[in-house]
Amino acid sequence: MNKILLFLLIPLLLLFFSATKIDSVTLDECEKDSSANVNDCIDLFSQKIGDLSDQKKTLASQIAQYDTQIKVTQLKISEASNTIEQLEKEIGILGFRIGYVSESIGRLEELVKKRIVATYQQSFTSNLELILASDDFADLMLRLQYLKQVQENDRRVLASLQETRSNYANQKDEREVKQAAIEENKNKLEVLSASLDSQRKDKEAFLAVTKNDETRFQRLLSQAQAERAIVFGGGKDVFIREVNQGETIGTIASHGASPGCSSGAHLHFEVHKNGSVQDPKDYLQSTSVQYPNNYNSEIYGTVSPRGDLPWPINSPIQINQGFGVQKNSSFYGPAGHQGIDMDSLSSSTVKAVKSGKLYGGSINCGGQYPGPLYYAKIEHGDGLVTWYLHMVPQ
Fold it and tell me: Could you tell me the CA-to-CA distances from 202 to 67, 73, 205, 229, 260 in Å, in that order?
């Protein structure tokens, strides 16, 4: 009976142990122990990044994700540096060995070749001279046998030297392979170093934007998610009317009109061409703009318009955020901010930058700060669509 139970339990035990992964290192070891296996630590931190990505987005989880990604990049830099150092040592050893042995083989080969020539010349000595030089028949046979063994041994030595030369020629190829690997790792190191600088700047920008405030973070996150949802078909909009260029299409929403779904009264303006996001500066006319006090251009960007369309708001125009900034941030992802955030210091009027069909709509921001976020879009009939977010269409 006991044997039967044991037989039934064995598969369950095997299943348990196979499903239980025993990590070779822990996060604490990777953080504190410099001798921990680099590859294991990279895998462990990468897994942590994935776990953090699946969690509910909070200020703390986003900071942890930045810190962990930075740690992974630092480990990869360390790995590449160690690889370069090891390869350089191996190349140094190979270089010394190849140079020394190649020179030695050259000298030995010359000596062996000379001796082979000498022994073959001796082999053509007349039998009479060989007989006369021998004490007796046994001595004669011994001399003949010795001469033959010398010749065979010289051939083997020469063949061995040539094989050794060939092997070291292969080591020259190995040295070239290692040198190529060094160059590859140096390029990798350069890319990783640039990535590390970028990640650190992204974290600094994130902390500057959120001001290390959870409430502000959640509001900005809700706003960014709603903006992305709108321009990719997530909003509910209806056709309003045909409009001409420069015609008023609505007003910039205030906190009262769009509670919780805006970081402040502003117009988020986007341009799409045949479904592809465009930089608005390539479409808007060159004009004088200004920026808020203490504006951080490295985080929020600047604009230099060079197009031929009029601006959607009246002058003087204040820029709150440019296009393509805050890349890889928790709010916008790798593409960065996809429009220009602007405000008029003279009025809240929003105008059509080009004639077309006007649509108006809204979307619920969701999360802790439900909208609605009001917006308008104009389809211009040539593949061009302009979007006007955080404004009330009319």
Answer: 11, 14, 5, 23, 25
For residues 249 and 310, give the distance between their C-alpha atoms in angstroms, rounded to a whole number.
14
pTM score above 0.85: no
Residues near 23 by beta carbon (within 8 Å), at least 6 away in sequence: 40, 44
Cα–Cα distance measured from residue 304 to residue 74, given in angstroms and rounded to the nearest whole number: 36
Q: What is the pLDDT of residues 2-28, one digit of tens each?
A: 444 444 444 444 444 444 444 466 766
- Let me know if residue 12 belongs to a domain: no
In a domain, 28, yes or no: no
Q: What pLDDT, in 10s, does the model give residues 213-238?
A: 888 888 888 888 888 888 877 778 89
Alpha carbon of residue 104 to chain centroid: 48
- The C-alpha atoms of residue 80 and residue 188 are separated, in whole angstroms, by 7
Structural domains in the chain (count): 2
80 token code pair: 């590449």
| Residues 351, 314: Cα–Cα separation, whole Å | 9
Residues 285 and 311: beta-carbon distance below 8 Å: yes
**Domain check: are 143 and 226 in the same one?**
no
Domain coverage including residue 175: 77-210
CA 1 vs. chain centroid, Å, equals 59
User: Measured between alpha carbons, how far is 302 from 140 in angstroms, rounded to an integer?
Assistant: 102
> Do 122 and 254 share a domain, yes or no?
no
